[in-house]
Amino acid sequence: MTLMELIVCLVIGGASAAVACAITGNTASEFVVLSLVGFLGAFVGSWLAHEVHLPALFVVKVGGRAFALLWPLVGSVVLVPGAMLLMRPHHGVAHLDRYER
To answer: Has residue 55 been placed in a domain?
Structure first.
């Protein structure tokens, strides 16, 4: 992966995390974690598309090099909601008495 591909994956991961945080109202600290997960998803999506020879869709040229935006976006959109589900607080029996008062 080149430096430019890394930067594109970071931007896509951050953008998908920002959209997810805006929709769900997550905090800034959760945004950092979701951005990292979004980057990982963008990286995995790009790598997987390359490995299975998927066509490059929604191509953007940066610095004379073409980047497919769809597959990193798909990877990021798949992982970010999964991370949000794992980060959500679990309201078990121990938390119920706090709400009953």
So the answer is: yes
